[in-house]
Specification:
mainly alpha
Length: about 190
């Protein structure tokens, strides 16, 4: 299973896309890695590790900018780091929307985050509402500060998770939203 085109579009909308290196803490374009107060980042949320500094150096502020094609290629390079661990941990059939929402969460919070693990634990016992709640309860802070964008993102991912209905194990088809009860999510 891979993230769908719709899922990738939503991920890019949530993460944003930048053609030059920026500081993920304040969103400012940086001209040297030492300027970063948070993590140097480029493209669609690609955190630049020290071993990658030389690769992305030409995209520091005031220099070149990545093309849209380069940004898309970098995202394609990054996605398996989140898709594979999510896919490998799930023992149940899930909908594409469920997978996309989980990969979005993993992309933002990490594939080993408590929210991803709790959601998958619920999925593996077919507790769809519990999985959506685990996503909603996911991280909403950055460096200890509540970020309203993350509050909205977790709520959106939780709703997205259930938007395609729940799997039917007997027929291999999905049961669509009108046949399941909507759940009130406790967004904290």
């Amino acid at each position: 299973m891979k993230m769908s085109k719709e899922g990738i579009t939503e991920l890019v909308r949530s993460e944003g896309s930048r053609a030059q290196v920026y500081d993920d803490r304040n969103g400012q374009t940086i001209s040297s890695y030492s300027q970063a107060q948070g993590f140097p980042t480029i493209g669609v949320g690609h955190l630049i590790t020290p071993s990658q500094y030389a690769r992305f150096e030409k995209y520091l502020g005031g220099r070149s900018a990545m093309t849209q094609s380069q940004i898309e290629d970098l995202l394609k390079e990054d996605l398996p780091k989140y898709e594979v661990p999510v896919k490998n941990a799930i023992n149940e059939v899930i909908t594409q929307e469920m997978f996309d929402a989980l990969v979005s969460l993993a992309f933002n919070a990490g594939p080993n985050s408590y929210a991803v693990k709790n959601a998958i634990k619920a999925i593996n016992v077919r507790d769809w509402n519990g999985a959506a709640q685990a996503i909603a309860d996911g991280p909403k802070t950055s460096k200890g500060i509540l970020v309203q964008g993350l509050v909205r993102r977790r709520a959106n991912e939780a709703q997205w998770f259930l938007s395609g209905g729940v799997p039917s194990w007997t027929s291999g088809i999905r049961i669509f939203g009108s046949q399941i009860k909507p759940i009130p999510l406790a967004i904290s």
